[in-house]
Write a structure and sequence with these properties.
It catalyses: D-alanyl-D-alanine + UDP-N-acetyl-alpha-D-muramoyl-L-alanyl-gamma-D-glutamyl-meso-2,6-diaminopimelate + ATP = UDP-N-acetyl-alpha-D-muramoyl-L-alanyl-gamma-D-glutamyl-meso-2,6-diaminopimeloyl-D-alanyl-D-alanine + ADP + phosphate + H(+). It contains 14 helices and 19 strands. The protein is α/β, with parallel strands linked by helices. The strands form three sheets. It has a nine-stranded mixed β-sheet with strand order 6-7-5-8-9-10-11-12-13, with helices on both faces. The protein has a six-stranded mixed β-sheet with strand order 14-15-19-16-17-18. A four-stranded parallel β-sheet has the order 1-2-3-4.
Length: about 425
């Protein structure tokens, strides 16, 4: 929020005040360090941020949005608004319009955070780039990301999440993207929107705020996006940006994008698609092959997303940040295609928020678990459905109810020529296995 004064901020909401102090930070959590900052008291299902104004003042807040008709707090400038959350979103839209960067918006069931990271680093080779931190992709997180953007930002790379209809539309209209991505259509949150068809409809709300000359980029291999229009990236023969994998090892993948060779030092066949989105974006911004490749060489993904490390003498792939059937099958396929390993071990757990089809979707993962996978350790109550889907007798399946019991088993897999995959929904916190 550089060079934004209290006077200017207040004027956006019809309040006249002669206060030239700069607002340097913004926070919705009263515990955050917020020196010379704006505090936004979000009203939640169980917590009302207005109740914590004194704590916010102690943390340095000098101005706050304040719901109308409440008694005004002391010791801080209060800007009366109908809704602090709506005011936060409106302030972000005004600030974004002032800076006027190019905006890249990204949504999708899987891969949006990795795609965001790759796009930001590729575009960062040429432009001053600002991106969503972590997964600040909600109706609160995205405005916070925008308001924390430096004034010299040339490109804003914004991730957009959803768990129902209307949410992506709101964020898209706030951000007004120049380029909008739908990375894929999975199964997460399907119960809220009526299955994969509903997910596709909700994700395509990203077009709502797309600039008139903006570009939509989608997964060419997803039938539900076939009629979406835009620029299509994938392995399909009709794709505008066509992919072809040349080689995949633990250390790197080599692939072609429209017959140009690229290398990605991030593990995972599905990460190749995410890199292809970054290539497509770079090309739309006028970057050349060598500049894009330099960016891909610097890619470091968010922790626990196909993160590579050694585990004793074994190679470990920590993809435990979250899981859906689509992303889990993709990770399994990656382990199956890696060269140089005689033992391939999958450590998988429950997947949540899958709705009424959760049994079939767990079984779908099981169908993908075939040789050359040698061992599969399944954790949790729902993982039994993964086991039910495994039909290849060459796979040694072990089931345990808790992460703690699985941890005892892992010692036997710390051997040379072994690769181990960790993947489950966030609620299982599977990374505890190797902490």
């Amino acid at each position: 929020m550089e060079q934004l004064t209290i006077q200017t901020l207040a004027s956006w909401f019809g309040m006249e005040i002669n206060d030239s102090r700069e607002v340097r930070h913004v926070a919705t959590d009263s515990r955050d360090d917020n020196a010379d900052g704006l505090f936004v008291p979000i009203i939640g299902a169980r917590v009302d941020g207005h109740d914590y104004i004194e704590a916010a003042i102690k943390q340095g807040a000098i101005v706050t949005f304040w719901e109308q008709d409440r008694p005004l707090p002391e010791g801080i400038i209060a800007i009366p608004v109908a809704s602090p959350l709506t005011a936060l979103q409106e302030a972000a839209a005004r600030y974004l319009a002032e800076i006027n960067p190019k905006v890249v918006a990204i949504t999708g069931s899987n891969g949006k955070t990795s795609t965001k990271d790759m796009i930001a680093v590729v575009l960062g080779e040429t432009f001053k780039t600002h991106k969503t931190a972590g997964n600040f992709n909600s109706d609160v997180g995205l405005p916070l990301t925008v308001l924390r953007m430096p004034r010299d930002t040339e490109v804003a790379v914004l991730e957009m999440g959803m768990n129902g209809f209307g949410q992506i539309e709101l964020l898209s209209k706030l951000a007004k993207p120049d380029i909008a991505f739908v990375t894929n259509i999975g199964e997460s949150h399907g119960e809220q929107v009526g299955g994969r068809e509903g997910i596709a409809k909700a994700k395509l709300e990203i077009k709502a705020g797309l600039k008139p000359d903006g570009v939509l980029i989608v997964d060419a291999d997803e039938p539900l996006l076939r009629e979406a229009g835009g620029y299509r990236v994938g392995y399909d023969s009709t794709a505008d940006g066509k992919l072809e994998v040349v080689e995949a090892t633990f250390d790197a993948s080599i692939f072609r994008y429209n017959n140009e060779l690229y290398e990605l030092k991030v593990l995972g066949a599905h990460q190749i698609r995410n890199a292809a989105y970054a290539i497509a974006c770079g090309l739309k911004f006028g970057l050349g092959h060598d500049t894009i490749q330099r960016g891909l060489d610097r890619v470091q993904l968010t922790s626990m997303r196909m993160e590579k490390r050694m585990f004793g003498d074994a190679h470990l792939v920590n993809d435990a940040y979250n899981a859906s059937p689509t992303s889990m099958v993709a990770a399994v396929e990656t382990i199956k295609t890696l060269e140089g390993f005689s033992r391939r071990v999958l450590v998988l757990g429950d997947m949540y928020e899958l709705g009424t089809d959760e049994i079939a979707q767990h079984e779908q993962v099981g169908h993908a678990i075939t040789a050359p996978v040698t061992d599969c350790v399944l954790i949790g109550e729902k993982a039994k459905w993964i086991a039910a889907g495994i039909t290849d007798p060459r796979v040694n399946v072990t089931m345990v109810p808790t992460v703690e019991e699985a941890k005892v088993l892992l010692g036997s897999y710390q051997r040379p020529q072994t690769v181990i995959l960790l993947k489950a929904s966030r609620g299982l916190a599977l990374e505890r296995l190797v902490q």
